[in-house]
Amino acid sequence: MALDTGTGLALIGAGVAIGVAGLGAGIAQGQIGAAAVGATAEDPKMFVRSMIFTVLPETIVILGFVVAFFLYGLA
Amino acid sequence: MLKPEEMTRALVIGSIDSLDATIECLYEQGVLHLIDFTTPDEEFKLGQPLAKASADSQKLLKLRSMMRTLGIDEHRPKDKLMVSAINVRLEQALVTLDLNTTSKTEAKQKIQALIREKEAEIRALDPFKNFGLAIEDFVDYDSISSFIGICRHDPSEALAEKIKEIEIFKEVRKADVAVAVFVKNDIKPETLRILSEHDFQEVKLPKLEGDPKKVISTNQGQVRDLQADLQRIEADIEKIRKQFADFIVSSEEHLSIEVMKEETPLKIATTENSFVIDGWVPKSRFREIQRTLNARCGLLVFVEAIAAEKEDEPPTRLKNSKIVKPFELFINMGSTPKYEEIDPTVMLFITFPLFFGFMIGDLGFGMGLFLVGLVVRLKMKGSPVLKNFGTIVMAGGLIASIFGLFVYAEAFGIPFHPPPLSDEASWESIGYIPIHPMIEKMNDVNELLALSMLAGWVHLTVGLVFGFFNNRPHSLKHAIGKIGWVLMLFGLFEETMVIAGDATFTSKFINSTVFFAFPVDFSMGLAGIQLSIPALVFIVSGVFTLLVTEGAFALTEVTGIFTNLISYARLAAIAVGKGGMALAFNTMLFPMIFNAWDSAGAIAISILGAILLVVAQLFFVFFLGALSAGIQAIRLNYVEFFLKFFEGGGTEFSPLSYERKYSVATK
């Protein structure tokens, strides 16, 4: 199907929004995750607290998702 | 259901003569959570262990050391032993065991040490046995120095080239070269330099004499003899192990219990003639403990309930019905709720299987998970944690099957009927199933997203309401702050529903019911987004409430509630992602399986395709899908839900009690 340039740019924007947000969250989560696994290995009761710390960066992806969603709506 | 078991503070006071009977009785009842007495003063002192404590703990120590030396720490007796039988045999058995095991294990250790020594000698001499030198020749002389060792590369050429007066013995082996080099004292540094260029490592030879070959063969003979001895001793130990293992483990358990009871007075306040046991008892069982103690000890013991003081922190014993109880596993993985806190187990019981089922949503995989859960539950009787885990998987599998059957109408990633405008494979090729999907997993993504938002709104609102009740007793201000969050969430949810508009059935339904008072067209456009004015009013009033109750700092968390709500989009994302993965494997491999079947080769390809499909579906969709759905379902509870109200840090109710696995109490 043929797309006009504006739509194409909006769709690329949506992709960038969620892609880069995911990348950022991944980098952050990787480091926190490693520390969290260590903490949980020391004390299994830390599991829930570790999990809460680990998922903190996910906020970034969620906001990225919202931006992507709106851009997708514009396209 | 939502509150832990109600506790009463109980004081057990009695004459010191009846202390042991009281302790025995309390342990049998298993309902008193002891508050340790830690502040002795002029009147009250810490109690003394009961008379038998010291003798019993010595015996216990002996038994435990024997368990280690005999290697039966992990032994699990099949039959339970009567306590009376243990008591009759214990003294004599300890003497017999002591006589047999101690000497045997000592001998075993000595022999093992000797074997190690002999083997080390063999290892050291072996590289140099073919040099034709006696062991005593490998030494430094008055004017000549020796280098005995192993090089990684052959150094002889380099040495012969640089140094004239030198004698080199070498043997090239698989990975290295054994060398013995003799040079005059004055060229010692030069030799060492060349040798170290070839990664020379010195070997210290044992202080022995004679031909290395002979010494090695003598040593080998000795090692053989020693090993035979060792085998004999081990056979003897094995005999003892077989004969006594059950008895030792059972008596260890019995004595541990005895010592635990006998040392309990160390945590109790006593005076010269009396004792005071202070603790928490479930309110429902207070009468029972009173009656039993009075029946057992008569007038010598008195039990009284005292009013709890404000700063008291009673222990928490979660109180849930039998079907909800397995879900306490999720609470135990984190922190115990405080006594006054709401116990969220029942919410986990509802939301975990629901979220999980929504994400998996497949009749075939759901039934598979149900079976896996059932097997875990039946096989893991010994471990309560795994048993509960099995039950939870069963619940998740069941709800996933229901979603798969009625909502998505699909099994093993294959829909009952081909989706509109698609020639996708479906179960129609095998038989017609008269159930049509309410939601097409792969096509109605918006519907799934709207449903996720609805789930998020309900879940978070319940969390905030819990937070209100948790905070109310000690701070009305914080409690009202939670109402601020509820208002904001309500506004945000309305906004998402307004944006969805008539695009999904869910939003249409919500807009005409929950939000019927705020028509969708009551809105304004802003940067291409349709903003609902009532939603804005709710959000602003929520922010205002928050500002008044929690202070300006709380405003930094306002975006948090927004991301919390959107976070539930993962429910839709995983459902679609998992469905898409199953579809992808089916689309790729079905043509391979259902080929012409006109030759042996084609049939072989068909079988290969079927195997590939089963492996891919099993691993990627069934296993990884269940794992990610499980993690996300529990994460939504731990992170989004719990943080709205849960504090934790309570003390778990652990009454004076014991459990006998390998012994039976006798009167």
Low-confidence regions of chain A: none
Number of E strands of chain A: 0
Strand content of chain B: 5-15%
- How would the global form of chain B be characterised? extended
Shape of chain A: rod-shaped
Q: What's the story with the biggest beta sheet of chain A?
A: none
- The mean pLDDT of chain B is 87
What is the name of the CATH superfamily of chain A?
F1F0 ATP synthase subunit C
- By DSSP, the count of extended strands of chain B is 16
> Terminal Cα separation of chain B, in Å?
38 Å
The largest chain-to-chain contact, stated as pair and per-chain residue counts, equals: A-B, 17 and 16 residues
Q: How many strands, what sense, and barrel or not for the largest sheet of chain B?
A: 6 strands, antiparallel
Amount of helix of chain A: over 70%
Helical content of chain B, roughly?
A: 55-70%
CATH architecture of chain A: Up-down Bundle
Number of domains of chain A: 1
CATH names the topology of the domain at 1-50 and 263-317 and 654-667 in chain B as Alpha-Beta Plaits
- Give the termini distance of chain A in whole angstroms: 14 Å
Mean pLDDT of chain A: 88
Topology (elements, then pairings):
The complex is a heterodimer of chains A (75) and B (667).
Chain A lengths: L4 H38 L4 H9 L2 H17 L1
Helix pairs in contact in A: 1-2, 1-3
Chain B lengths: L6 E9 L3 H11 L3 E2 L10 E2 L6 H17 L11 E2 H43 L18 E8 L4 H7 L3 E7 L4 E8 L3 H10 L3 E2 L9 H51 L6 E2 L3 E9 L3 H12 L3 E6 L21 H5 L12 H16 L2 H17 L4 H24 L2 E2 L2 E2 L29 H27 L4 H25 L4 H8 L10 E4 L2 E4 H18 L7 H10 L1 H25 L6 H42 L21 E2 L3
Parallel strand pairs in B: 4-16
Antiparallel strand pairs in B: 1-10, 1-11, 2-10, 3-9, 5-7, 5-8, 6-7, 9-10, 12-13, 14-15
